[in-house]
Structures are given as structure tokens and as C-alpha cells.
Design a protein that fits this description.
Layout lengths: L3 E4 L1 H8 L5 H12 L3 E5 H14 L2 H13 L1 E3 L3 H16 L12 H12 L2 E4 L11 E3 L5
Parallel strand pairs: 1-2, 1-4, 2-3, 4-5
Helix pairs in contact: 1-3, 1-4, 3-4, 3-6, 5-6
Amino acid sequence: MTKCIVLDTGPLGKIAHPRPNQEIAGWLKRVVASGAVVIIPEIADYELRRNLLLEGMASSLKRLDELKDLLLYMPLTTQAMMKAAEFWAEARKQGKPRGAPDALDGDAILAAQAHEAGGVIATENVGHFSWFVQAKHWREIE
């Protein structure tokens, strides 16, 4: 069975840097070589892209676009958005809100995309996702 790894915005940003951190670049090579499917979820692309545009980081934007040819890009679907709404509501019912009541919750959307892919989220903030879906620090995924 092929492992699916869904990138959170933090690791995606490190990978998209024109000179990626050697540790994460090596990690990415290893997981891809192992046969894992590494996914760029649309919500993570959006969160990273808006910041790169704001900061005028053209080289990183170019690299982010190039990554879509190397990794699997996962567009948002209606099904994922419906699951995100469920995750958002359940978190609030359990007293674990992730932001303002009317805020669009990127973490819930990313968790829903990971749920849809049947994958583990590679992140630096495991606590943001672990109550929705499986999430691990990217260093712990091999």
C-alpha cells in the first residue's frame, strides 16, 4: 500500500524555498524514493502563496509552481469542504476552537484534504491536526 503524505504549509514553505533546507530536502528525496505519494493540498498552496506574494518572493513562487510538476497537487473538492465543516463544528463542540467563530479554518480544511487522501499530514504543528486526522512531525515520517 502506498503511503500518502500531505504537506502542511510550514514544510511546504521550506521545500519551496529556492535553496531548501538540506534536512527537509533530504527527507523529501527519501520519502519520494520510498514510493510515498507526497501531496500539495490546495489550502496549503493558498496559505503559502499569499504570503510569498505579499513579501514579493518571486523565486519561491516559481519553485512552488515547479513543485506541482514533481509532487501531486490536490485541489479542493466539495466533499473536502463538507468534511472540513464537520471537523470545525466538532472541534467547537469539544471546546477546541481553532480561531474566531467566523474565521475560515485552514487547519480544518487541510485535515479534510488529508482525510480525503487517506494520508498523514507532515507538519511542524502536530497538535493542530491530531484530533482530526493522523499527523506527524515531518522528521518522523519515513
